[in-house]
TrEMBL record:
PANTHER family, alphabetized: DIPEPTIDE TRANSPORT ATP-BINDING PROTEIN DPPD, OLIGOPEPTIDE TRANSPORT ATP-BINDING PROTEIN APPD
InterPro entries (alphabetical): AAA+_ATPase, ABC_Ni/Peptide_Import, ABC_transporter-like_ATP-bd, ABC_transporter-like_CS, P-loop_NTPase
UniProt GO MF annotations: ATP binding; ATP hydrolysis activity
One family name in Pfam for this protein: ABC_tran
Name this protein carries in UniProt: Peptide/nickel transport system ATP-binding protein
Predominant place of localization: membrane
Subcellular location: Cell inner membrane
Keywords associated with the record: ATP-binding, Cell membrane, Membrane, Nucleotide-binding, Transport
Cellular component terms per the entry's GO annotation: plasma membrane
Family: Belongs to the ABC transporter superfamily.
Tree of life domain: Bacteria
Organism: Hydrogenobacter hydrogenophilus
Length: 248
């Protein structure tokens, strides 16, 4: 298994946010974490990335390629983030820096781990792999020149430029026009087909139907159901899963 999460518990102050969360993800699969707003979906991703806010307390185990991530220093985490595990957020505009050209931002992600040599070629290739046909032109543009969908493709290029094995995505299509949501989801499936593992957080069972191999249903910080995608649609067991499905 690429990632194994075991009995993860998280508190913000004295609020118990994640309760005994256990799951795993392997290369070449998309795990969707689905649940209502506030159920703790984003907190799972932030726990994996080592990006929890001050005042949080975490217990349990998160093993990546057999190595324990919990308890790593900030320096050790920085070597993993972007290089081995990366994340795509909901709002590409909030993530991209308006003052820097697209090419610079994709290159930076590469340079942080591999140095300057070959960075431009890698950045252009990552933009092309993210479905940007006129990569040379986009490379010289600023974020405000691009549509929401194109900006999200750039964020995916940043997340993949170092060829990490695990990509986390937090509601990556929620802020986008419906017309391009499907294209971005296809891109994630393409990345999965190249052997990467993806954990995609969503509140939308339509997205689950589109991309998931396996599904984890989260309610109030607890996993209520965990199944392959066909079983979840054909035989949902938990009343909460049925309720979420009925809203589809
Ligand atoms: N920095 C923080 N400090 C304190 N509480 C927080 C913090 N971040 C999130 N929470 C609380 O933790 C709970 C889980 O939040 P989280 O963002 O993980 O849920 P979510 O399922 O991703 O929701 P959403 O879909 O709205 O992003 C919520 O009750 C939220 O209010």
């Amino acid at each position: 298994m690429l990632l194994e999460v075991n009995k993860l518990n998280l508190w913000y102050g004295n609020r118990h946010i994640l309760k005994d969360i256990s799951f795993s993800v392997d290369s070449g699969e998309i795990l969707c974490i689905v649940g209502e707003s506030g159920s703790g979906k984003s907190s799972i991703l932030l726990s994996i990335m080592g990006l929890l806010p001050k005042g949080s307390r975490i217990e349990g185990s998160i093993k990546f390629k057999g190595e324990e991530l919990l308890g790593l220093s900030e320096d050790q985490y920085r070597k993993i983030r972007g290089r081995h595990i990366s994340i795509v957020f909901q709002e590409p505009s909030a993530y991209l820096d308006p003052l820097f050209k697209i090419g610079t931002q994709v290159e930076e992600a590469y340079i942080a781990h591999f140095g300057k040599s070959g960075a431009k070629e890698k950045a252009l290739q990552a933009l092309k792999d993210a479905g940007i046909k006129n990569a040379e032109t986009v490379y010289r543009m600023y974020p405000h020149h691009l549509s929401g969908g194109m900006k999200q493709r750039v964020c995916i290029a940043i997340a993949t430029v170092c060829d990490p094995d695990l990509i986390l995505a937090d509601e990556p299509t929620t802020a986008l026009d419906v017309s391009i949501q499907g294209k971005i989801l296809s891109l994630f499936k393409h990345i999965r087909d190249k052997g990467k593992a993806i954990i995609l957080v969503t509140h939308d069972f339509g997205v689950v139907a589109e991309v998931a191999d396996r599904v984890l249903v989260l309610k109030d910080g607890c996993i209520v159901e965990q199944k392959d995608v066909y079983s979840i649609f054909d035989h949902p067991e938990h009343p909460y899963t049925k309720e979420l499905l009925s809203s589809l």
